[in-house]
Amino acid sequence: xxxxxxxxxxxxxxxxxxxxxxxxxxxxxxxxxxxxxxxxxxxxxxxxxxxxxxxxxxxxx
Length: 61
Known about the structure:
The protein is mainly α and 61 residues long. The chain is built from 2 helices and no strands. The protein has one domain.
C-alpha cells in the first residue's frame, strides 16, 4: 500500500495549484497543474507495470 500513500501525498501537494487555477484563474498555476498531471500519469504507468509483473510472478508459482 506504499504506492497508494505516495499518490495521496502527491495529490495533496498539488492541491494549491489546482485551487489557484480553477478558483483564481491563475494561468501559471494551470501550467503547474498540467505538469503535475503528467507526473501522475507517469506514476500510474509505473504502478500498472509493477502490478502486471506481480500478477505474472504469482501466476508462475
